[in-house]
Fold this sequence. Notes:
By secondary structure, this protein is α+β, with helices and mostly antiparallel strands. The chain contains 9 helices and 5 strands. The longest helix has 22 residues, at 77-98.
Amino acid sequence: MEQLNRNGHRKRMRESYLSGDMKNAPDHNLLELFLSVIIPQKDVKPLAYDLINTFGSLEKVISAKPQELMKLDGIGESCAVEISLIKTIYDRTIENKNKSITKINAVETAMTYCKNKLIFRTDECLLMICLDNDGCIIADHIISEGSVNMANINLKQIVEIILRDNAAGILIAHNHPNGSADASAHDLNFTIELRNYLDKINIQLVDHIIVGKDDCTAIKSNPEYYIL
């Protein structure tokens, strides 16, 4: 009887998903449905809860390395690979979206490019995009990641990368994974300091984009930050 009940539950979950009813379902329900597909003949509801409780959120579960996932009872190598593959595939789709953006010629384009890069990162990071005289993208670089402290950013390192890429300007972006895109006092001070530093060597700071959990802000292009 337990087998029939479990199978019936899985069938109901699939039907709910196919009808679109799981669009607003709790995270653990979506993870349970996914696990039920890759782990047959086992009640995976407790495992879905364990994963989210262990890592802290659905985003952190799919961002975890396979080796970290396998530390949890019930997660083998195959399951760990399939869970982590979700983010790998998503990251590839984002890279493919950004392939069509080869030139930063408007603030909207800048925000789209940076949002695609950072929106689903669960850790803070500082991204720098090097541009030529026409605004064409030369390369992008992660300058800092983990817990970004603007006061500790090495401006000389930024200049070294600029010179190596032979860039005429740069676009800076960082993320607030669990917050809004509002600029803090530290964000504004860093932007001003970086702009002044780059002005001395005739390098343009195109903008500083902040990617929040649900929104995006361009500091230099936002009239609210008129001091820039």
